[in-house]
Request: fold
Amino acid sequence: MRVVRTGHRTRRGWTGIAAGVALVLSPGPLMAQPPTPAGVARAEEPAAPDGSFARVTVRGGVSPFRMVAHDVTVRGDTVVVSLVKETLCSVGQRQDVRVVEGAGAAALIERLRRVGAFAKAPVEGAEAGALDARASTGLPEPRYEFWSAWGNRMERFHVDREVLMRHPDLVAVLTAVRDEVASRTDPLPMRDLYHSPSEMGVLVVTASEEATALLDGWERFRLPMDGVDVVEGEHRLRVEGVSGRVREVTVRVERGMTSRYHVVLEDEAAP
Reply:
């Protein structure tokens, strides 16, 4: 399921801008188990304490974005992987989140444990603490922030490219976290999120069967799509029905007006 939230993602909550999220959670902690009585088979050891995470953020040198972050977080008996990209024009974020369960979650955690991603201590030449977002905006060369936790133990520091390349173990963490997230999330295409209200129109879309629509390769809606604010101009719409039939059409939205489209997904009649 994919939903659109209003919010700027932080580790503790949301404030501000739009983000796209696909998220399913399952109950059950991955925490340390109590001692097992003698003569009783011991349950399988947990893969990681609940709340453990590894996050790598790159600022500078990632145009057209201000920031790109890859995050892996243990939640119960699942692992949540997320990709976050922040736009250049203003503080706007898009986020894609996926959940890994079962054997896949255990394998993911084990790979990150092997490279020390959950408890990476600062290396020589690193600067402790969070990377200043304002000071790093527009830098020609990237800076890399490593933020991790294993249970209650947390580490956070940042380095430039020169320091990063001097430490193969740090490169291994960057590569492992980035690969695990990128292989499971969508690339999040870029779109301008900010328009004057005077430039907006309303788009209404229906279809001949139950369907979902993807607008400009960016936002997904379940049809009927009623009363969605869209900037004026032409837009690409990809509609996929429950039957598997797909149609891609161009729609046009006029400022201050409602544009209505009905997409027919039935097979075309033979001539």
Notes: The radius of gyration is 22 Å. Residues 1-43 have pLDDT under 50 and may be disordered. Residues 2-27+48-182 form one domain.
